[in-house]
Design brief:
Helix content is 0%, strand content 53%. The chain has strands at residues 3-6, 9-13, 18-20, 23-25, 36-45, 49-58, 61-69, 84-86, 91-93. It has a four-stranded antiparallel beta sheet with strand order 5-6-7-8, with no helix packed on it. It has a three-stranded antiparallel beta sheet with strand order 2-1-9, with no helix packed on it. A hairpin with a 2-residue loop joins strand 1 and strand 2 (9-13). It is mainly beta.
């Protein structure tokens, strides 16, 4: 079962992930919200839409914008609406 780990903490774990462009997108109900803080960062993808970001905070350590999701997606990416993906040192084990 895929899981996302950073700084020794399991951030998300699910067997219902969606893989898009090589990234595991975790369902919203699989993330451990205590590690996530809203970020003001946004980026745009031509076919998925506007991404929003989370900072990951574990034991006082902050990994800025280490997770992203698409709260509103274009039709081509509807299967990942609200799902969360990771980068910036977050290890995703499959």
């Amino acid at each position: 079962m895929p899981k996302a780990i950073w700084n020794g903490a399991i951030l998300a774990e699910s067997d219902r992930c969606e893989v898009v462009e090589g990234n595991q997108y975790f369902p919203p109900d699989s993330i451990k919200s205590e590690y996530f803080q809203d970020s003001n960062t946004h980026t745009n993808c031509p076919w998925k839409g506007q991404a929003s970001y989370y900072d990951i905070v574990v034991e006082g350590q902050v990994n800025k914008d280490a997770a992203w999701y698409y709260p509103n997606v274009k039709d081509a990416a509807k299967q990942i609406k609200g799902y969360v993906a990771f980068w910036r040192g977050v290890k995703v084990e499959v």
